[in-house]
Amino acid sequence: MSFKLFDKWDVTEVTVEDMGLQNYVCLDEIVVPHTMGRHVKRQFAKSKVSIVERLMNKIMRTERNSGKKNKAYSIVEDALEIINNKTKQNPVQVLVKAVENTAPREETTRIKYGGIGYQIAVDIAPQRRVDLSLGFITKGAMQSAFKNKKSAAQCLADEILLASDEDSRSFAVQKKEEKERVARSAH
Asked: What does the sequence similarity comment in the record state about its family?
């Protein structure tokens, strides 16, 4: 028996093309993306949580939506519906493409040597790449929804669509490029 996400979209046909992210973008078949926080106590267990639920959890991190899982659930469901209506594609595939396009590969870290701090470029772990990507997408969507007539779901759908096309108008793509540019300058 095959389950569809929100009883609408089949996740078995979704593919992750970025080889580094394949083990960290979970596409398990579930109807309701809500694990009740079972993954919290184990170190890398969040990579086994559905990518859609992780997007919901990132939406809940903003001040206005803190802890409001039902609100985040409806925002994500509506956003996926909008994406499906606009593109006629599986919206989970569009989300995965957006995550791949906005996941930075390099960032800087501070090294202190001899009392002097240096910025050096380091590769980012795949788990952190997915986290940063989802964070960029949700932050961009929530910022554009603030004091705007558009709903949060519409703004999230727009951000995901722009990010999946690697459009430079996307907040997430801009943040990724900024992070990688800073890392390149630290070489």
From this structure: Belongs to the universal ribosomal protein uS7 family.
